[in-house]
Write a structure and sequence with these properties.
By secondary structure, the chain is mostly helical. It is 60% helix and 0% strand.
């Protein structure tokens, strides 16, 4: 097992190719150890060069609506009137802190997703 740091996209591709060949290595084998080290290196490289920012709050809400088969009307207990729900979903009104808390508590949407843009107190 010769493992080298991942310093370029080319070496990242090579690491992925190697991972494909040892992906199902038996637990405790040298290949399984190699896979664990390669995964750590890949994650470190990707986090440094391809960071993923927090989800957009409105997209997070729409994703949860899709997951749970909810309609805009179902958001009224968390956001307010149908007009307010429409304004929020169409990005014409920002989420308030009260809305964020209700959406988190009621629909289990992570705070990180809901707070990724500025939120107004109310």
């Amino acid at each position: 097992m010769t493992i080298k740091p991942i310093r370029s996209d080319e070496s990242l591709r090579a690491a992925f190719e190697r991972l494909e060949t040892i992906f199902q290595a038996p637990e405790g084998s040298p290949e399984a150890d190699e896979m664990e080290v390669l995964v750590t290196l890949v994650e470190a490289y990707e986090n440094q060069h391809y960071p993923i920012g927090p989800a957009d709050p409105i997209e997070a809400i729409k994703f949860r609506m899709e997951q749970q088969g909810l309609a805009a009307k179902d958001l009224e207990p968390y956001i307010g009137s149908s007009g307010r729900v429409s304004e929020v979903l169409n990005r014409k009104r920002p989420l308030s802190l009260r809305m964020v808390k209700r959406l988190h508590d009621g629909l289990k949407i992570p705070y990180e997703s809901l707070l990724s843009q500025s939120v107004h107190a109310s």
